[in-house]
Amino acid sequence: MQNHLKNEHSPYLQQHADNPVDWYPWGDEAFDKARKEHKPIFLSIGYSSCHWCHVMEHESFEDKATAKILNKYFVAIKVDREERPDIDKHFQAVYQLMNGRGGGWPTSIFLTEDLKPFYSATYIPDEPKYGMMSFSSLLEVIADKYKNEKSVLVSEADKILHHLNPKENKIQATKLDRSIINRVLEQSKQLFDSEHGGFNKAPKFPQASTLDLLLDLYKITGDKEALNMAAFSLSSMAKGGLRDIIDGGFCRYSTDNEWLVPHFEKMTYDNALLAEVYLKAFHATHHDFYKDIAFETLDFMIDKMSKDHLFYSASDADTEGEEGKYFTYSYEKALRTFEKAGIPKKAHKQLAKALHISEDGNFEDKNIVRVDDPKAIDIPYYHEAIEALKKRREKRTYPFIDKKVLVSWNAMMIKTLFKAGRVEKKYLKLAIKSLDALLESMYINSELYHATLLGKKPKIKAFLEDYAYLTEALIEAYESTLNEVYLVTAQKLANNAIEKYYDKGKWKFSRGEFETHADIYDSSYPSSVATMLSALYSISSLVDIVYKKFVFKTLEIYSYDVMRQPISTPRMSHMVIRYLLDDVIIKAREDKLKPHISDLDTLPHPFSLLKNDTNDGFMICNSNSCFGHEKDFAGVMEVLDKRYYHTNI
Predict the structure, then answer these.
(1) Between the chain's N and C termini, which has fewer beta carbons within 10 Å?
(2) Residue 239 and residue 140 share a domain
(3) 203: cis peptide before it, omega within 30°?
(4) pTM attached to this predicted model
(5) Cβ–Cβ under 8 Å, residues 232 and 285
């Protein structure tokens, strides 16, 4: 029997449509029921590829006895955090306030009938463990308290709401100066894992924005350690595990320090951001390995995670209720696969050893395929073995794919496709088609939307991150094509974002039902504030310097936090450095610039842009004035080499 989620577009909500829990989507129908029946609300927030969300569903939400308690005493609401990041952001702040630490998913919030939160948790087990009572017992305790001690719960909820929006403190600004460059380098070196790459200890996330910053700092300073930290991390992440050697693509994070055992879900944002960083590493090192990984990642996304030139949000970690089942191999089946592929029997054991396939396994008695040195693979029959293992996978059930289309995540992919298109032309054509498809489906009558399913009309209006990432993608499109239409659309979106979300140097993430502040900290992907500033700075350089004031005001307000601990806000720190060093804008006629679009990523200054102009030759400018006029591009490179080659600190 289906519940009230049956007509929802979200694949995550559809996953719960047949639960015995009488789930409602977030909205007036659920709120009216709670008020009319004087019942508390149980709010569960998750997403389709979340492993612990699945665990809680199987243990509790599919259990008829638990569902009976939940239906009797509560109004149950399900929210897809990817579809409604504003609701998720609000209640993550509630959880942080209540528990003194960051939350996670599933997020479990208990609210009064007037939507006041009084209890919060993440995953709640179906039996007593981890120092917690069972979910069914917790439901009964809360139902009893709500009936007999409601005033106490309401009082606690009021205190939480009071603290949720504290009075604004006086802004503590500090000087923005180039000392931030050495501070980033020093803090990166302190946190760097010199044995396995990456930063901090497990669970280890790719931290693409930190790697991206280090590669630009290498270009600025010539600090070889900055390059080595980034390159070594990217090489280590490509060994296998976090990177899926068989199908391509990267998983969300590693549960160990070695990047071996991942959380197997694959997110569009990770693959977009990592492909971009691998491309940047290719330009920095001239080693084809990094380019090949970037292209492999993009090809995976195009092949498995897209349709009609738009990209799905994520694929699942679990298959048939088992984490990693699709991705791993037993020793016996791997050897049988080699035999069927015609690989000589005498090579099987040596090949298995080189691919880290053993009888004991490296993940729950099974094997995650891995190599010791992905940069220089010298393994007999390696390519034949990988192809054979891929064919074995094709007989398996592929993990569930959440076919939701999110503007911000698609924009990240499109931006990377344009960058890839400057190396390999086939990606440029794909980037243009994807950008056209995204604008056509999600930018309707000058109104930008956040999420939809293919073929469905979007309902949820865009948030700051959608404006920020799409504006960046449009600027990248302009840089790769010099088509002024992209720049005009970027400026229009930037104006809309300022009007909707900017407030005296601070930015809102959302307005309306939940007015939430935008963070300067990078979480799963870079801060929407920093991304918006990057887009505005580009528009300032390319169109009108007036946009620079919005950038400066925001940087000034957050200057103390960023200057003190820049490694905690890598994308924001990137923006401070860009602001201090300024852009280089190379201006010339379109026919003069077009042959040099492919040179854009190898220019000596990391913050360089091309701009259509009518002058003869090439003008070399920053945001305030021009400092060079050359008749050919070789002259431009000579000027930039002299001015910017490791001289910016």
Answers:
(1) N
(2) no
(3) yes
(4) 0.94
(5) no
Same domain, 534 and 495: yes
Integer-rounded Cα Rg, in Å, for the chain is 26
Residues 350 and 365 in one domain: yes
Cα distances from 463 to residues 83, 239, 558, in angstroms, run 11, 36, 21
CATH of the domain at 466: 1.50.10.20
Say whether both 63 and 105 belong to one domain: yes
Instruction: Tell me how far apart the 2 most distant CA atoms of the chain are, in Å.
Output: 83
Q: Please state, in angstroms and rounded to a whole number, the distance separating the CA atoms of residues 464 and 441.
A: 18
On whether the CB atoms of residues 384 and 351 are closer than 8 A, the answer is no
Tell me, yes or no, whether 172 lies in a domain: no
Would you say residue 419 lies in a domain?
yes
Peptide bond before residue 106 is cis, with ω within 30 degrees of 0: yes
- Residues 126, 60: Cα–Cα separation, whole Å: 6
Residue 6 belongs to some domain of the structure: no
Q: Are the CB atoms for 477 and 485 separated by under 8 Å?
A: no
Q: pLDDT of 216-264, one tens digit each? A: 999 999 999 999 999 999 999 999 999 999 999 999 999 999 999 999 9
- The amino acid occupying position 415 is K
Q: How many domains does the chain have?
A: 4
pLDDT at residue number 624: 87
Range of the domain at 371: 327-395
Mean of pLDDT values over 625-641: 95
Q: What is the pLDDT of residues 130-151, one digit of tens each?
A: 778 999 999 999 999 999 999 9
Tokens read off for 145: 């308290």
> Quick one: pLDDT at residue 5?
96
In this structure, the number of other CB atoms found within 10 A of the CB of residue 470 comes to: 30
Rounded CA separation 413/279 (Å): 13
